[in-house]
Amino acid sequence: MKDLKGKVALITGGTKGIGYGVAEALLNQGLKVVITSRDKNAANSAAEVLGTKTDSVGSVIGVQADVRQLKSQQEAVGQALSTFGQLDIVIANAGLGHFASIEDLTSEQWSDTIDTNLTGVFNSIKASVTELKKSKGYYITISSLAGANFFAGGSAYNASKFGVTGFTQAVMLDLRKYGVKVSTIMPGSVSTHFNGNTPSDEQAWKIQIEDIGELVIDLLKMNPRTLPSKIEVRPTMPPSK
């Protein structure tokens, strides 16, 4: 997609963190953006702030949607089409984390993690695949280095992100014959509010949300003949342990 202006992107979990950073980057490139959240007020508020911040009022809307439900994702896609007339890019970003030893991890925490992080990605792609085949669009899923590196207390999160990584690569092979690109980004430590973290100046060493936004733009602008299907991203200089 050499010329991004006027393209339409849907970003799940776009009200904060990585999703918000990607939304801002896309708006600054002249795209139209739909951000989703389970919280209607959060979606509308974030869209309003983004529109003002990027001088893109009217080019961004907030939609209440739950990635755990296919019907909800289909409705979000429908709102993108009714508002902007097309859909070219889907960023499957929504996610959460429950971290505990298998001895303490509850079945509810397991289900919440898998349903949001993995089934949510399936639903986001399934709901929009017809439209992205029409537009020869681009799917980008947000996995994690936890999708390649396991750790104690991470059974649910590791399972979900290993799943996202593998799922995305298989979907890439399914869809490239239609001219649809599919990539997964696997960040390490990112300065967001994920898992109760509070971003601060002391965390300037971490990947910043605007860095992921810049990476997404680079992917979208890459020559159509080339596809970086899986990208691991790390802080350059993490603190010594």
Intertermini distance: 42 Å
The SSE order reads EHEHEHEHEHEHE
CATH topology: Rossmann fold
* Strand arrangement, major sheet: 3-2-1-4-5-6-7
CATH architecture identity: 3-Layer(aba) Sandwich
Q: Please state the average pLDDT score.
A: 95
Percent strand equals 5-15%
Helicity, in percent?
Answer: 40-55%
List how many beta strands DSSP finds.
7
Taking all Cα atoms into account, the compactness measure Rg is 17 Å
CATH homologous superfamily label: NAD(P)-binding Rossmann-like Domain
Secondary structure category: alpha/beta
The number of domains? 1
Task: Describe the protein in words.
The chain has a single domain, classed as Rossmann fold. Helix 1 crosses helix 6 and helix 4 packs parallel to helix 5. It is an alpha/beta fold and 241 residues long. The longest helix has 29 residues. The N and C termini lie far apart (42 Å). The mean pLDDT is 95. A seven-stranded parallel beta sheet has the order 3-2-1-4-5-6-7, with helices on both faces. This is NADP-dependent 3-hydroxy acid dehydrogenase YdfG.
